[in-house]
Write a structure and sequence with these properties.
The chain is of the alpha/beta class and about 220 residues long. It has a single domain, classed as 3-Layer(aba) Sandwich (Rossmann fold). It has helices at about 20-30, 30-40, 60-65, 80-90, 125-140, 160-165, 170-175, 180-185, 215-220; strands at about 50, 70-75, 95-100, 115-120, 140-150, 190-200, 205-215. Strands 3-2-1-4-5-7-6 form a seven-stranded mixed beta sheet, sandwiched between helices. About 40% of the residues are buried.
Length: about 220
């Protein structure tokens, strides 16, 4: 697999904070949000699943543990996070393939996956790379396959909340309004892009939304 020398924003914002990432996320309540995301995806036996920006592998491990009959692949550019993900999967006796790479250059063939997941990752991507990421998702999905995206939301003009400002800078969140996320999903060719739910972490200070969109036959044949 081709390794590309590029910069990226680590899951915890900085490498030194990585050991504290999982405990903090669990404390904030993100694990429950991920479980809701998984429940909405309606996975079926034999499905091929990709988790982009998998970080330390929490969602990928959850998918495999809840649905052992599906195959799961996790992708992330951070080798340190992937090392933790592999250890996590080994402890859970979960067979998961973890690859190093970027979401806007997915190292997989066309129509390779039935479901693609993205959990608290989309805001990490630069605004000019988000459309390319979603077009790559559309490319690797099978006809009828779907993307299930969970991420922090901002208002149309700004990111609110002291904790949000501390975790991720304003410029990372300002493009994460509901309207902008849906618009870029539709532009990338994900049919029926819609917001399917919302919630909040840490006493309501961190708002997030659930989004889904699918690849249909019309897109495949175009």
């Amino acid at each position: 697999m081709r390794q590309v020398q590029r910069t990226y924003l680590p899951a915890a914002g900085r490498d030194c904070a990585l050991p504290f990432y999982d405990p903090l996320v669990k404390l904030l309540g993100a694990d429950a949000a991920r479980r809701t995301l998984l429940n909405q995806a309606n996975l079926r036996p034999g499905d091929r699943v990709l988790d982009i920006g998998c970080g330390t592998g929490t969602l990928a491990a959850l998918i495999k543990c809840v649905h052992p009959e599906v195959s799961v692949v996790g992708l992330d550019p951070d080798p340190k996070a992937l090392a933790r993900a592999r250890k996590k999967a080994a402890r859970a006796a979960a067979s998961i393939q973890f690859d190093q790479g970027f979401s806007d250059e997915l190292p997989y063939s066309d129509v390779s996956f039935d479901r693609v997941f993205s959990s608290f990752m989309f805001h990490h991507i630069h605004a000019d790379e988000r459309g390319k990421t979603l077009r790559e998702v559309q490319r690797v999905l099978v006809p009828g396959g779907s993307l299930h995206l969970l991420d922090f939301e901002s208002s149309e003009g700004e990111a609110r909340g002291v904790l949000a400002r501390w975790l991720h800078s304003i410029h990372r969140l300002k493009d994460n309004s509901e309207g902008k996320i849906l618009a870029i999903m539709k532009t990338a060719g994900l049919a029926n892009a819609k917001k399917v739910g919302s919630g909040a972490l840490f006493l309501g200070h961190l708002r997030f939304g659930y989004y889904s969109g699918s690849r249909d036959d019309a897109i495949v044949n175009s």
